[in-house]
Amino acid sequence: MSPDSPTNYRLHKRDPLYREKYDEVMRNHRERPYVRDALHETQPLMQSAMNPTLGNLWTAMGSLFSRKTWQGTDPKNTPSINVTNIDLLKNPELSKNFKARARQMEESGQNPNVTTLYSGHGPSGTEHIARSGHDPAYGQYHSGIFGVLAKGHGALGRGTYASDQVNKAVTYGSGGQKAGEERSILQYDVALGKTHETTDRGELRHRHHNELVRPPFGKAVEEGISAPREEAEYWRTVDSIKGVKSSTPGAGVPGTIAHSKQFDSNEFLIRNPDQILPKARIFYTLPELEERARKEKED
User: Fold this and answer.
1) Which of 6, 28, 41, 223 has its CA 20 to 30 A from that of 68?
2) What would be the CATH architecture of the domain defined by 7-298?
3) Which of 173, 3, 5, 160 is nearest to 73 (CA)?
4) So where are the chain's domains?
5) pTM listed for this prediction
């Protein structure tokens, strides 16, 4: 294997680095609860279920109606997790690109502001990211009538999404659906650089970065609306966007107009894939599944 090839290294549980990573993840898990809304979490599955590119509509529909089982958790409560294994991710090419991007920020007078974030993906997405890094194209989702048309890129626009909450990532973690089967999420170093913060889920929804930095700005290109120069210049300097968690109970719940425009957790949108360096893959099981299996066996 070439020294430049990406590798995964499973940490031994007696390794001090394992304990360091384990403590970091579990501290985040305990201190940053995330209470999800069932409807909010179901929406992506409704969209994917109607996405003709999936190829297997039956599987998608099955996922739609078993999201709660798939997560193995009650959407009204923060799930508990049991970390089982940790893989360090080494990718020389991604590391080189990450350092180069951070250096560009420093040379322009911008603090790279490197921070730790987490995300969860389907099995194929997790493997791809660990091996090749992020592709912003994955951020596009389908919506509209029956979800058959590509409509946009989420609440913060086009790019890669991540969270500073382990529990948020866990709701999208990939892996087994049965008791005892492992799931996984990814941990990153992210050079946030200059961050634009918003508390309004509607401010940047469906927006592509190119619409923000060159005329015409804002609405559809065919409408011919030009961007104010100072606004376009501002967006050229923005490296990431943060959706700031609301302190309002029920934030993010679709049933209420005001609340649905707020964020139920801190969300980050990273513009350039080179700002993201996958550092570890965290494997875990869900004790709630174990308890459910035990009760079903007793019954």
Assistant:
1) 28
2) Alpha-Beta Complex (3.90)
3) 173
4) 7-298
5) 0.75
